[in-house]
Design a protein that fits this description.
single chain, 81 residues, alpha+beta, Rhinovirus 14, subunit 4, 2 helices, 3 strands, elongated
Length: 81
């Protein structure tokens, strides 16, 4: 193997926005996460819906409710008619 081709592998402190701290190893000295297994809704079983600045209402006002419209299938005529 060639010398000096691999990055330095150091102890790393991973900090989540919820306050959870994990120790691992990586090429970075520290990492900051926005969400982790301790606070992610999939792992906690908690469903949170965050409507920042009324974006859902703003969208509904602008575009109304979205409904799927299906065009009717073309009528087939028998051969030779």
């Amino acid at each position: 193997m060639k010398a000096d081709t691999h990055p330095n592998y150091v102890d790393t402190v991973v900090t989540c926005a919820c306050g959870a701290v994990y120790n691992t190893r990586s090429t970075l000295k520290e990492m900051k996460l926005g969400i982790c297994a301790a606070c992610h809704p999939f792992f906690t079983g908690e469903q949170r819906f965050v409507d920042t600045a009324g974006r859902v209402d703003k969208f509904a006002k602008r575009f109304g409710t979205a409904t799927l419209r299906r065009a009717s299938a073309p009528k087939l005529t028998p051969a030779g008619a």
